[in-house]
Amino acid sequence: MKIRSTTIAALMAVLLVGSVAACSSSVAAPTEDKAQGTLKVGIEGAYPPFNYYDKDNKLVGFDVDITKALAKDMGVKIEYVATPWDSILGGLLAKKYDIIISSMAITEERKAKVDFTEPYYHTGSQLFAPTDTSITDPEDLKGKKIGVAIGTTFEEKARALGADVVTYKSDLLAFEDVKNGRLDGLLTDGPVGGNAIQVGGYDMKAVGTPLIDAAAGIAVNKNSAGLLKKLNAAIAKIQDDGTYLKISTKWFGTDIR
């Protein structure tokens, strides 16, 4: 997302319009063998710098570049199915797409419903608050009004810490509410929050150290052993041949595997 801190409409214009436009109108059930053909990929498209629509309405980001590299190794074409985060897992279960590559943390709850590849990156959740915040310990959130994207591990963590949780469809909306004094802070992925502050010019900062260390994986439906094996082999290949490092350095300046 290229963020402009003016109005919500302006903030969402680049992202959500493109996101809707990218959604597939007709969905075929995915097949196990992806050695040839097209791989349908569920992706949110509203989570910069991992996946988002740029000013030219083009889907870009770390997840997008990783997807392209994996597809090239697997010899398949890509069809993106942009899907809101709160329904993205349901879309996979309904077989609207073959896989999810959208910075999805691997959790035991999700593993009960779907299978995951080996992690393709590691990260952590971070508390962001106004620069003049009175919060000094990111774990001292009891009674604080904290924004989170709905259905995320950030929501689970904020509730566990006793925060007064407010859920949003997008981190962008939470950042705007912090800016306008409606929230004490928000929890999101560290690189995502840092990118939002830099691009959007928010008068905010990261508070303390990350609260959760998480691993992100590619989600597939149960009983997709062949597809899972191909994806894991492709992940290992791009990590070994330098492709992964090149992509990671492009977006983060370091190796986040």
TrEMBL record:
InterPro entries: Iontro_rcpt_C, SBP_3_CS, Solute-binding_3/MltF_N. Pfam families: SBP_bac_3. One of its GO terms (molecular function) is ligand-gated monoatomic ion channel activity. The keyword Signal applies. PROSITE patterns: PROKAR_LIPOPROTEIN, SBP_BACTERIAL_3. Residues 1-28 form the signal peptide. Residues 38-255 form the Solute-binding protein family 3/N-terminal domain. The keyword Transmembrane does not apply. Keywords: Signal. GO terms for cellular component: cell envelope; membrane. Residues 38-254 form the Ionotropic glutamate receptor C-terminal domain. It is found in: Cell envelope. Its main location: other. Belongs to the bacterial solute-binding protein 3 family. This is Transporter substrate-binding domain-containing protein. It comes from Cryobacterium tagatosivorans. The lineage of its organism: Bacteria, Bacillati, Actinomycetota, Actinomycetes, Micrococcales.
